[in-house]
Write a structure and sequence with these properties.
The chain is α+β, with helices and mostly antiparallel strands and 153 residues long. 26% of the residues lie in helices and 25% in strands. It has four helices and six strands. Strands 1, 2, 3, 4, 5 and 6 form a six-stranded antiparallel beta sheet that branches. The longest helix has 15 residues. 35% of the residues are buried. The N terminus is likely disordered.
């Protein structure tokens, strides 16, 4: 299921619940979309320094500190996504996947849009994945709560 980018000012919700086969995501233009396809990978290796900020962001999500998560966003994403929208997305994800139990090691991939860090999640009902994209300035330009195994966009 793909959702087209926001086309009118009346559409304020930046995140929608998508079936477990797809993903919940927040992207820089404030739209929601199912994740599919493969990335255009960058030849340079991903920066190792993004693993820690990705895990810190996941910790803030699990604690429910959505103001802190939003503070990590780049300017455009911060203007589009409220802490309440983040909370609703996390709550919808937990309703489908169960409560957070633990996470695995982060994996990083350089893509045309920046650096993507994927963190496998152990949730109470089924496995999942937390994914963030860092722009060139080190700020978040995307955040996803996914089913396990969803390919990079």
């Amino acid at each position: 299921m793909a959702v087209t980018p926001r086309r009118s000012a009346s559409v304020r919700s930046a995140v929608v619940a998508v079936a477990a086969a797809a993903a919940l995501c927040v992207v820089a233009d404030g739209s929601a979309a199912a994740v599919a396809g493969r990335p255009a990978e960058v030849t340079a290796p991903a920066r190792d320094s993004y693993a820690r900020p990705a895990l810190d962001t996941l910790d803030e999500v699990v604690r429910g500190d959505f103001d802190a998560v939003r503070a990590r966003f780049g300017t455009e994403l911060r203007q589009q996504v409220s802490p309440e929208a983040l909370r609703q997305s996390w709550d919808a994800y937990r309703a489908e996947f169960g409560d957070y139990v633990s996470h695995g090691e982060p994996r990083q991939t350089g893509v045309a849009a920046g650096t993507v860090v994927s963190v496998p999640l152990r949730m109470a009902k089924q496995p999942g994945e937390f994914r963030v994209t860092f722009g060139a300035d080190g700020r978040l330009t995307g955040l996803w709560f996914l089913r396990a195994g969803v390919p990079l966009p």
